[in-house]
Amino acid sequence: MRKIRMLRALVLRFWGLPRSTRQNEAFAEELESHLQMHIDDNIRSGMSPEQARREAVLKLGGIEATTQAYRDQNALPFLETLLQDLRYTLRQLCKNPGFAATALLVLTLGTGATVAIFSLVDAALIKPLPYRDPSRLVVIYGSVPLGPRFHLSFPDYYDFKRLNKSFTSFEVYDPSGFMLTTPTGTQRAPGARVSAGFFRVLGVTPFLGRDFSDTEDKPSAPRTVILTYAAWQQRFGGRSDVLGKSVTLDGNANTIVGVLPANFHFAPAEPTEFWAAEHDESRCRGCHWLFGIARLKDGVTLQAAATEMSTIAKQLEQQYPDSNNSQGAFTDSLTDVIVGDIRPIMLAMLGGAALLLLIATVNVASLLLVRTQNRKREVAVREALGASRRRLLRQFVTEGLVLGLIASAFAAFAADAAMNLLTKLVPKDILAGMPYLHGLGLTPHVLFFTLFISLLSAALFSFTPAISLSSESMRAGLTEGGRSSSGLHWRRFGSKLVAVELATAVILLVAAGLFTKSLYRLLQVNPGLESHNLALLTLSAPREHYFNGQQQVSLERRVIDRMSSVPGVTSIAVTSRLPVGDGDGTSSFVILGHEHPGEHNEVAWRAVSTDYFKTLKAHLLEGRYFTDLDQQPSQPNVVIINHALARKYFVGLNPVGLRMNFEGAKPEDAMQVVGVVEDIREGQLDTDARCAFYLPFEKRPGGFFSIVARTARPAQSVLPMISAAIRDIDFSIGTFGGSTMDQRIHDSQPAYLHRASTWIVGTFAAVALLLSVVGLYGVIAYSVSQRTREIGVRMALGAHRTTICHLIMKEALSLIGIGLAAGLVGSLAAGTLLRRLLFGTKAWDVTTLVIVAVILATSALVASYLPAQRAASVNPLDALRAE
Amino acid sequence: MGENDVWQGTLALMVLKTLESMGPLHGYGIARRIEQVSGDQLIVQYGTLYPALLRLEQEGYISSEWGTSENHRRARFYKLTRAGRRQVQRESQRWGKAAAILNRFVSPSEELL
Known about the structure:
The complex is a heterodimer of chains A (883) and B (113). With 883 residues, chain A is of the alpha+beta class.
């Protein structure tokens, strides 16, 4: 009951907050009538009117104090003060827009970077994977001498499943995709084949329909498929009657039995659209195409399970020495498989961002301190007028909080933009492999984090002025005589910090510069072909219709024939593999009549159509290109080699006219070298050109090859017509990888890694530069504010304005010098660490170092010139009078 | 706190009690009445009286309206609400109890000795 009364009072007081003048007038009237009644009484008791009035006023006491007490009761003084402080703060910020903008920018950058990276960490490392008890899931790979993460064969999987005692269940998946037949042609569709219990191991149940039944992965079972949520939405419009419908995958009809939940993802197989039950129970122990996934039994550690798997692999090796020679097993936790690689990078980036935020906070604190120095008199006057210490400190805390909160709102937007940028920097297929990043954005988690760190930094920088206004300096403020030792400490600390910030900025700028130069160099690499206006498309002909060479040759001819009539195509060729790829497709070879020059002579080879080199605009060094005649089966075998191969294996020989063959091939397959071509990059751009040789396509045809089309107009615009032309030829031919050569080079792995590094390091460098410059400004301006009296005395004694300017600049220059020197030394060390990531760029690239030094020195000089200028413009009389 | 100042917390009860016995009354009248009843031993500070009145009004124990005093002056008159009457009962009892207990300590009776 009493509580309710108090609550009622509280509500009324809250409403009393925007106090009306009417209410104030009413109270004034009440007091006035009180006074009058008192005077009346006094007169009645025999006093003279003046005496009566004096006595009454005296008794009433301070009218102001009474009114104040009444006001406080009428409203909530705490809230009211807060509103006052807020108004005052906003007015202060508006009055000093330069300070407000700088402080907000610095805070926004520091907080924004931290929030952006935290949201990545949150999505990748903190948010649990969408499985039941994900920490108990492990992945089992086949390990071979080449490395630990290779496939398992079906019989090996079967034996692992049968013999192990560590797992409650053991299933397999095969993440290679499907060829999907659609009304507009056959396309590659990402997906995986899994054993029947796969989703039960993960603890995932379909959102719609049902899971695979236990026997659904038997070869005799009808083919069934489960869709991902995205595939259901995009390919089937999210219709609920999708269950029971049929999709044709790899030429087989599959019945749709379920749809996976929207949040489901399985990074080791992503991207995926279709999850089909595996039907191939191959007896072949040497055929490896599966990965194992299993759930640990309670109490079994990953280590124990890994040991058991290795033991079983050893048994199988003894039992089947032919197929299982040096076939081991490698067991790793699913979490590590998914995020193990990026965890250290992300944590390092989070650490870096946190450091940035700390520096930003200290910088803002230093700016606030400069302002506090300038406001010392104001504070002292307010105190003298009766403001309580707590009230004054509260004003500073309010200012800190306002800055922090505004910055946090900006930071949330900045972080969102940064995340968008980050996801755009990563090529689509790499991003698809990181499905946990899909939910990236301003989640409640992230927003909460933003608020938390903003309050933390606000607390930090609102205490700085509060402490600097400690009792003695506050009283001394009135005379401006006080320069406490805390001011000196701050100057020393600030100077050291600024030197470190400058050095960090130099190191990051140099790193960004090196990456930029390296990226430029990489894209300058001559790929041995003219990449503009070159359209690419890869074909996959179904085996049923194109299983022998004759059928494949006739397909190739029809493709070339049909393409020649596509408008915009000026030249057309096919190749078994496109250049600027992973450099696979290799074989060993021998040169007839000559000893092997080295032990390992495995080189890349490609089967290409007659116009291949002409279409690429490759450069012929010696001999001739292929002719149509060379493609004829009846004609002698010929080969064209590249320059790298000629240089490495035909040392001191003229290769043209010599004969070579695949190692171990029949003597009649031997080929005569007819030409040497300038290196076309078969591998990635950042590695040396690979040795390669080229054969006529029709001598070694295949049902899987790529089209290369030279176009008269932008290649991208011709691509749809090329795809349509293929559908005209045969509807069942799958097409994918429609792209241009420029795009292929742009998206190639080294180019993307370089670009991502350049952006990330560049962003950090820009932020670091800004922070160091603001920090420098803060320290120099603070120093000027502390030395006002000294400057005044010097000027009064006849020092020239330029002398004063020099005095301040000297302080700045020594800081810049130290920072720059330390930064350059540090960047040499950093460059050496980065050496392996750089392409065609030295760690001590002089141009980069000089440019960075100039950028940093210029911006630092500008930052310190502003306060120096202000110091020089001090009016000596004012400076002295201020004391 | 001076000896003659009204103790914090007891002013509210004095105001309520005054209004109960006197009926509607203005601030000056309340102050005067309290001083009179105390035999001029208490001095009511207006800096405490008016906030206390406002608080009682906010809590809903009294209500106020403008009226004319016996001397034909415009004044604000306070009067007890129904909740205020109950509150006077309750608080008087509590105070009586508390005073009695305290009294036993201050002037102990024979049986305690």
